[in-house]
TrEMBL record:
Originating organism: Virgisporangium aurantiacum
Superkingdom of the source species: Bacteria
Protein's UniProt name: Methyltransferase type 11 domain-containing protein
Methyltransferase type domain span: 66-162
Cross-referenced InterPro entries: Methyltransf_11, SAM-dependent_MTases_sf
Coiled-coil regions, chain positions: none
Source taxonomy: Bacteria, Bacillati, Actinomycetota, Actinomycetes, Micromonosporales
GO MF annotation: an example: S-adenosylmethionine-dependent methyltransferase activity
Length: 280
């Protein structure tokens, strides 16, 4: 069944060179973006707490866990604490981010297998894991059902996959502000960064990947940016915007925004969706 899955237009989030390069080769952009968003968040449960609780409900004692697209390893570290005797495999295509995960886990006196790999072709045995996470990463795939099917291949029958994503309209008030400022008039017209795997199609994609979705949780997150400096710290990390070439850092972007818009940060929202699925 492929309804709601195609067609898929290219976005910066599915540009392989960008994703493997400036978006994630080094940890700085992801850390700056996460920090700016956390500082702005005024409501909505913590995603790592939610993933940990959903994992505990699904499997109280997994022996092998794969964290696919683990990024800086925030969920990896949490699950390592929650399951002290489990084997944890941290998978990401960015060797730079895997180094951060290694350092964070060794600070907890915990070792992990670090695997630099593309989630469409995992160098892992079939049916080896009890639990796999795919946190906020499948929207980087132009064919997320193939990536999910490959992750499912590595999970034993009856094992669990927790996949998380955001709504396609996430942060659209920021797109609108950037557009009306005149800095990027098309910012609110272009496709969502999350369009290949989002709140609206995630369940259909998981079903097409052969998974049985047992539960889904949708949580509304609200963000209030303090001012244009705060907004610029987030917006400069967002590859959606086509900004003038001289605006390469948050300070110059904030200064330019102040010339064009009232110095008040916008309020915006995102729905975060968690799918708790089983491999049949
Ligand atoms: C937004 S981060 C999410 C990190 C983490 N799961 C979290 O929830 O904080 C997306 C991650 O997906 C990884 N990624 C993107 N495309 C990938 C691919 N084809 N194979 C493996 N990892 C990929 C990136 O390197 C990045 O670390």
């Amino acid at each position: 069944m492929t309804r709601n899955l195609e067609p898929i237009a290219a976005t910066p989030f599915t540009d392989r060179a960008l994703v493997a390069g400036s978006l994630y080769a080094a940890p700085d952009r992801l850390a700056q973006r996460t920090t700016a968003l956390h500082r702005a968040k005024v409501s909505g449960a913590n995603a790592t707490d939610t993933i940990a609780a959903l994992a505990a409900d699904a499997d109280p004692a997994p022996q092998m866990i794969i964290d696919v697209g683990c990024g800086r390893g925030t969920a990896t570290v949490r699950l390592a604490r929650q399951y002290p005797s489990a084997i944890i495999l941290a998978v990401d295509q960015s060797p730079g981010l895997l180094t951060v995960v290694r350092d964070r886990l060794s600070a907890q006196h915990r070792s992990t297998a670090l695997i630099a790999a593309d989630f469409h072709h995992l160098p892992l045995p079939t049916a080896s894991a009890d639990l796999a996470l795919a946190g906020f990463c499948l929207y980087h795939s132009p064919r997320p059902r193939h990536a999910l099917a490959e992750i499912a291949r590595c999970v034993r029958p009856g094992g669990w996959i927790i996949a998380t994503t955001k709504s396609a309209d996430s942060y659209h008030d920021i797109d609108a502000l950037i557009a009306t400022s005149g800095l990027d008039p098309g910012a609110d017209q272009r496709p969502s960064l999350y369009q290949t795997f989002h709140t609206g199609n995630a369940e259909a994609v998981a079903a097409a990947a052969g998974l049985t979705v047992q539960r889904r949780v949708d949580q509304q997150h609200i963000f209030e940016f303090a001012d244009l400096d705060h907004l610029a710290a987030y917006a400069i990390t967002c590859p959606k915007y086509r900004l003038p070439a001289n605006l390469t850092d948050a300070t110059s972007l904030a200064a330019e925004l102040r010339r064009r818009a009232p110095d008040a940060g916008p309020t915006t929202a995102s729905t975060v969706t968690y799918l708790i699925a089983q491999r049949p």
